[in-house]
Design a protein that fits this description.
By secondary structure, the chain is α/β, with parallel strands linked by helices. Helix content is 47%, strand content 6%.
Length: 342
């Protein structure tokens, strides 16, 4: 009798988990971030990307893979999402590396400035809700979210069940590939029109928040273990937009000086575009979308400079004349048309 009860319980649990697994992707909110991560992580893994771009919105709108392709024949994908905390970036990168072996990994360090123990839930969900069940996803949930929220990340329907009145055809037949041509890049077309009032000549260093230091070292250790090349970047931004605000370091410029020292000690390039603006012809008023993010014209300048750095310092093959990559030329043209229509 007991054996039959156990069997029934096991069957019930299996059926329940199956139903929940089917409902989760329907109820999860569909965003551009979700679409690009599904495509970049799981649907386009036949040819490994030369370069992997990681980080928050600064990277999301900072480096354009289609420009890297058109100018240098480099294949890349931008996995950055709005507000992506650095610990979430780490586990996302581990998921990327399951399919893309030994790429050059470029990580923007802006979110090292976060002092809160956890990032904002909505920003975390952009990533975790888009990951398939895996050890990396489980570790991200366990390490990047409050323990009390664990069930809501494991079973998103517990979070989103109230969405049922607003479900549309798109929720049931979600097309994650509709913007794959952009390779994860998204930049604004505003012109900030103001000068950068941050002190770009700041000297001295400031300690990183404990969690930021922990994950900065985790990136370095992972690169040594997995054998991939690692680059750190900092996109142009006005530090005064966050300095001293609740949840952020008081002196971002000095903290970034500390990041530069750690990178140098580990022979890792750190490209601080805040200090390279004159060199690349970057006009803060014209090339920023707002105080913290570059616009599409600024992204073009930053991307061209990064591409030049990559070609000069790494043995990268130019794929532009390879018939296997013909789709990249088509995607570039499509991205240009989309940019002109903004």
């Amino acid at each position: 009798m007991t054996k039959k009860i156990v069997q029934k319980v096991v069957i019930f649990i299996i059926i329940l988990i199956s139903i929940v697994s089917l409902l989760n992707p329907i109820f999860i909110v569909k965003t551009d971030h979700r679409g690009k991560l599904i495509e970049g992580l799981y649907n386009h893994t036949g040819d490994a990307y030369d370069v992997i771009l990681m980080g928050s919105s600064h990277m999301n709108g900072g480096i354009d893979p289609n420009v890297l392709w058109h100018q240098y024949g480099i294949t890349s994908f931008n996995y950055a999402t709005a507000g992506q905390p650095i610990d979430v970036t780490y586990y996302l990168l581990k998921e990327v590396l399951k399919k893309h072996k030994n790429p050059i990994v470029v990580v923007d360090v802006y979110y090292l400035c976060l002092t809160n123990k956890y990032g904002e839930e909505g920003y975390i969900r952009y990533v975790i809700d888009s990951m398939k069940p895996s050890i990396n996803k489980l570790n991200a949930i366990m390490n990047c979210t409050p323990f009390m929220d664990l069930p809501y990340y494991l079973f998103p329907i517990l979070k989103y069940h109230n969405r049922w009145p607003e479900l549309t055809k798109n929720d049931f037949r979600y097309d994650s590939a509709y913007k794959y041509y952009a390779k994860g890049f998204e930049a604004g077309t505003n012109k900030y029109g103001k000068d950068n009032i941050s002190d770009l000549t700041a000297t001295g260093t400031a300690e990183l928040p404990p969690k930021s230091l922990e994950y900065l070292n985790k990136f370095i250790e992972l690169s040594k273990k997995e054998g991939f090349k690692l680059i750190f970047t900092n996109m142009p931004n006005d530090f005064n937009s966050i300095a001293g605000k609740d949840g952020w370091v008081k002196d971002p410029a000095k903290m970034l000086n500390q990041v530069a020292e750690i990178a140098k000690a580990n022979n890792i390039p750190f490209i601080d575009y805040g200090s390279k603006m004159d060199e690349i012809g970057f006009n803060f008023k014209e090339d920023m979308n707002n105080s913290g993010h570059v616009n599409i014209w600024g992204a073009n300048k930053v991307t061209n400079d990064l591409g030049k750095f990559l070609k000069e310092n790494y043995n990268l093959v130019d794929h532009r004349n390879d018939p296997k990559y013909a789709q990249w030329n088509s995607d570039y043209m499509r991205s240009q048309i989309a940019s002109l229509s903004k």
